[in-house]
Amino acid sequence: MFRLALTMLINERGKYLGIIAALSFTALMMAQQPAIFLGMLSRATALIDDIPSVDLWVMDPNVQYSDDSKPLQDAQLYRVKGIAGVEWAVPFFSGSIQARLPDGNFRNCIFYGIDDATFIGGPAKMVEGRITDLRLSDGVIVDAVSARGVLAQTATGEQRAPLGVGSTMELNDLRASIVGLHGGAPNVQSQPIIYTTYNRVKFFKSSDRKLLSFILVKLQPGVDAAKVVHDIRRYTGLAAYTKAEFSAMSSNYFLFRTGIFLNFGTSALISFLIGGSIAAQTFYNFTLDHLRYFGVLKAMGASSRLLFAMIALQMLSAGAIGFGVGIGVVTFFGVVVQGNTIAFNLNYWIVGGAAFAILLLSLGTAVLSSRPVRRLEPAAVFRG
Q: What average pLDDT does the chain have?
């Protein structure tokens, strides 16, 4: 009987392919939109995650997320160093700067300044060159993706030779020499990321009066982090957060203070409703077209439970194929955009959620489509 059910479904080639196409679209959008959203959310905390050696982030109390820079006076660094329990504290600059490329084109870039002596806060992964080369005159480190991508494009979008070690650019009309390429994670804005030393930031941004964005703190072994945080807030008036707290605060800002979550959630929901409606309507029409066959089986003694199992098998098999096609397309999309400006993070939770959504859709459609079969009187088939 179950083989007969699958044969009935496959023989209706047009409706069969239509159901699979609708379910594939649904699975694709249910996985792609959350994967892009999760990728963007991970970029919101990329700066924090790339500096694992830091225990506390100290900043202006009004800072809301990692890219929200509200500069402090340099004297605050020494006040934080004097707090009991602090092993070391280093400055960190986070801001933006306009870069002028060799062809005269301008690009807005994210600009980070790290401690001159220890290079704490620098990129965790170097693709070319060494981080210590920042000691060279006018040295900066650029992210490798942008050096081969947007920084290697003309104003008209044409590709030219990528930037590399030895290339030069201008930052605020001052010469900067590229001494390395890093492989750090892109930021939410997908802008080029440039690193240099903190003191050199003062050279490139000499017009800015205050440049200290964050103070990165390492605690002494065995010290209670909560007590040090309390002391920093009490004696300096600054905000201090552990790495986990600052990461959560940045994530929550993008979740609840921007429209990113609402936009992606609405898109996924609409895709589910549209794709699911098309698949359900197509399968319902398929069931109505084959109502006479179900009537014959019912007249031959097939129970309503058996007929429902046949209908459920038809829809679940189509759902499994549609899910496989949709996730396959999403996975291929992720491989293509990996390392590019599009944020993408497909994990097992997203795949499992998409599978659960397709399962619910398939079972709900089977229940709906089985209603005419349950109400069917076998005699009506023979009278027709």
A: 86
Q: What is the maximum alpha-carbon separation in the chain?
A: 95
Segments forming the whole domain that contains residue 359: 2-43+259-383
Statement to judge: residues 223 and 77 lie in one domain? yes
Each residue of 83-141: pLDDT tens digit? 999 999 999 999 999 998 887 888 889 999 999 999 999 988 888 989 999 998 889 99
Task: Kindly report the pTM of this predicted structure.
Answer: 0.77
Of 33, 30, 9, 32, residue with least CA distance to 276: 30
Same domain, 210 and 118: yes
The band of 359, judged by pLDDT with boundaries at 50, 70 and 90, is very high
**283 within some domain:** yes
pLDDT at 340 (0 to 100)? 60
Token pair listed for 251: 């994530």
Task: Pick the more confident residue, 310 or 299.
Answer: 310
**Rounded to 5°, angle at Cα 149 from 148 and 153:** 105
Residues 209 and 274 both lie in one domain = no
Task: Give the number of C-alpha atoms closer than 13 A to the C-alpha of residue 120, restricted to the C-beta side.
Answer: 17
Which phi and psi angles does 120 have, rounded to 5°?
Answer: -65, 135
How far is 154 from 150, CA to CA, in rounded Å? Answer: 8
DSSP state of 71: -
DSSP 100-168: EPTTS-EEEEEEEEE-TTT-TTS-S-EEEE-GGGGGSTTEEEEEHHHHHTGGGB-TTS-B-PPP-TT-E
How many domains does the structure of the chain reveal?
A: 2
* 90: CB partners within 8 A, 6+ apart: 77, 114, 115, 118, 120, 121, 215, 216
Alpha carbons 159 and 283: distance in angstroms, whole number: 49
330 shares a domain with 231: no
Q: Which of 21-30, 281-290, 291-300, 301-310 has the lowest mean pLDDT?
A: 291-300
- Whether residue 170 lies inside any domain: the answer is yes
